[in-house]
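dumping this here before i forget
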Amino acid sequence: MADPATTWLDRIRGLDLPERIRIMNVCGGHERSISMAGLRGALPAAIELIPGPGCPVCICPEEDVYEAIQIARREPVILVTFGDMLRVPVNLPRREIRSLEQAKAAGADIRPIASPLEATAIARDNPDTPVVFFAAGFETTTAPVAAMLAGGVPDNLSVLLSGRRTWPAVAMLLEGETPGFDALIAPGHVATIMGPEEWSFVVENHDIPSAVSGFTPESLLAGMYSVLRQHLEGKLFLDNCYEEVARPGGNPTARDHLERVMDVVPAKWRGIGEIPASGYALRPEYAGRDARRRYPGYADEGRKRAGQMPQGCDCARVVLGKIYPNQCRIYGSACTPRDPVGPCMVSDEGACRIWWSAGIRSEDAA
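structure:
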């Protein structure tokens, strides 16, 4: 008996496809599954899979990383953050401290964590030391941060928030110019928190077939089959191919925490600029937990500009699906996982890091 992934592949191969159809996947986790499972090589050549803006580490504003570095170096604090953020470089000369990892090596007390619960535990274990939680991420990581704050935290814990919402970036791509894709695979984990219906605008406003998918090859292939059939038959709808987890309305508790603790605000995306309604900020009731209020003066206004990618780095174009990772001018030469120049080569959800880990070295290998 054929496994489900093989069955979906056979169904896709049986479709009468056009000469070219472009499917964007929004999520870095999707891109990792696609690349590691070798789905690009298994699918018909007419299908072009485009990695989209689904890496929170990649789009975290350069000025936010810089601010975290300065607080950690100049204040007597413990700074905690999700592990991938430690290696994200900022635009400074190489002789200067350019990442949280380098700041840690220079003596700052910086600790990687995997969960907001760890931030709370570290604060409780060090009651006489201020703890700053540099919290960057999309809805799936920002919701637990909101829950942490809603539940109460030690007085010595504050949050340097850099939370972002996923769908406004896709809306910007669709509204700004001719779309660079013909169908969309929406992120299953975000849909689990916020509800699949959050992505219905892609179909209703832009006539682009869409499906919410999980992270296994079979779920991704089911989503691809759905959007391909929608495209061929002209019957467009938002298909939920992750309904065992992503349910209508999402997670009510998580959404309630977000609404109670966070305001939705315009926000900068690194290398892209400001996107309306794409960020989270702490509500006034939680201003006492805002690290920017506790440690004012470390935000460098001169760094708050669009285009904050290092010279020669094409991460912004990769994030927006304009080019493939291996089409970046410095991919694999000046920029490698061992010595990353741009943020897309840092994170396990960054398209450049994913492609490198999958063994793609040259433009011809995609």
